[in-house]
Amino acid sequence: MTNLQTIEFGGKERRLGCLPCDSLDLTRKTYFDRLGASRQVYSLDEIRTTLAGKKSMHLRRDTYAGTTFVRDQHQFGACNGWSTAGGLSCLRLFRGEPYVCLSGADAYSQMNGGRDNGSILQDGMDKVFPTGIAPESLVPYNKIYASQIGQAARDSRIRFSGSEALPLDDEQALANAVLAGDFVVVAVHADNNFFQEDGDGVNLMGNGTGNHSVLVQDIRVQSDGTLNFDMRNSWNTGFCQGGYTWLTWNRHFRETVKYHRFWAMVSTRDDTKDDSEPPVIKTTAKKKK
Amino acid sequence: MREKLLATLFLLLTITGLSAAPPVDVPAEVKGQPHSFIVIEAKTAGTVVKFVALDPGLTVFPPNLLAEKKTTVVSSPTPGTYRVLAYSSVKNDPTDPAIIRVVIGDGKKEDPKPNPDPKPDPTPDPVVKVDSVWVLLVEDPAAGRTKELAALMSSKFWGELKPKHEFRFYLSTSEKAVANGYTKEGAKVGFPAVLFVNAADGSLLTAYSVKDKTEADLSNTLKKYVK
């Protein structure tokens, strides 16, 4: 095990487990491709106008019932699992499902081939999201191998699964997706400046091929018109702003997008076993007067 | 409202100095009986005078039926005091407006007479108020989500529904939405659609498109149908 880069943070050596791809699969239908002729697509300028004067579009959805969404991958190279699990947990809640904290370790176990040597973003979209992820209560952070996942956890995955996920390749698609409320898994290049921000809270890490997977969940515009994307990390709440920091396309994504397939989570399946089951509609005949 | 618009228009014209023609000369008040024809004559250098009823209940004769273009006839079946606004233009300059009081009968509105043979109004079906609801929002995935819809879906209305009520967001193509009838009902009113469903028995209380709707609209619907 160990060809992954590492970086020291919070008293732990953090393994940067987001693996770049030399060639991305570009055949798949993308975020805008799925939209029909009457589709609503905003230009970046329209998005800037929409956001002008606002703190952000979604007011940084960061807690539920007083509990933070930020998780901790600890010393494992499981970032891709945690960003996928974090997004799926929150998208379910956004859709009205009861909140269930899903396990980044279980998600990672489905992508790492039995080794703690990282994973690729596309596997999160293609394999994990539709299969589903077990709750963190069944699979804690240190159970990252398939052999460690019990049958009950495996059986639970389908209950917490996604139904539609789409890749996206540029700033306009990312901005449209996040504006719409979708959660997007992206790659950044964590370096020694990863823990620092400028006066506007924008992260000071640089561009690179990308080595760390994070979740994007909100969007705002700076006074100079630069769009910022709110990133949730998986290194506990001591990182930057309670576990969050702001990113820009030019500074953080324009290189990493070449080597990693960014993807948006659009919808999830209902959990057939939760207590709140939506009813079948019964239409009643109108009374005659 | 109409009166205010006309008054504003003429005020602006006066301020800008565009109204240079002398005002239309009309009587300050005319009187008549209910149902009678009351004549209002105006004097002006303009060739045509326009007359506008400012209060409901007073009828102004169609001007094209009158040969004299500086005169009108008004009538009302109801006693009361009404107002008519008159204006003209002289050499492309509008005149100041003039108001004529029209006193019908004693000028006082009388109380409506009781209907000697009252028939009860048809009673609308009472709104069924229920204990709890499911609020379901159904979108067309091919349309994309507008920023207004995104803002509505992020509003606090949804979080405040729980725990008494429940909600879900669906794509119209999802299996559950199709199987449970959400897509069918949503298609009737237009996507994106919101459905309020009685949690007790699944009956559809109401459904409508949320295009151009606000958080307040959803809240009002909730109040209408929930005890």
Q: How would you summarize the topology of this molecule?
A:
The complex is a heterodimer of chains A (289) and B (227).
Chain A: E1 5-9, E2 12-16, H1 44-51, E3 63-64, E4 67-68, H2 79-95, H3 104-109, H4 121-131, H5 151-156, E5 162-167, H6 171-180, E6 183-188, E7 212-221, E8 227-232, E9 244-247, H7 249-253, E10 263-268
Antiparallel strand pairs in A: 1-2, 3-4, 5-10, 6-7, 6-10, 7-8, 8-9
Helix pairs in contact in A: 2-4
Chain B: H1 2-15, E1 29-32, E2 38-41, E3 49-53, E4 59-60, E5 71-75, E6 80-90, E7 93-94, E8 98-104, E9 133-139, H2 147-153, H3 156-161, E10 166-171, H4 175-179, H5 182-189, E11 193-198, E12 204-209, H6 215-225
Parallel strand pairs in B: 1-8, 9-10
Antiparallel strand pairs in B: 2-5, 3-6, 4-5, 6-7, 6-8, 9-11, 11-12
Kindly estimate the percentage of residues of chain A that lie in beta strands according to DSSP: 15-25%
Q: Helicity level of chain A, as a percent range?
A: 10-25%
**In this structure, how is the largest beta sheet of chain B organized?**
5 strands, mixed
Query: Tally of extended strands of chain B?
Result: 12
* Largest pleated sheet of chain A: 6 strands, antiparallel
- Could you list the spans of chain A in which at least 5 consecutive residues all have pLDDT below 50? none
Averaged pLDDT of chain B, please?
A: 86
- Helices and strands of chain A, in order, run as EEHEEHHHHEHEEEEHE
Cα gyration radius of chain A (Å): 19 Å
What's the β-strand tally of chain A? 10
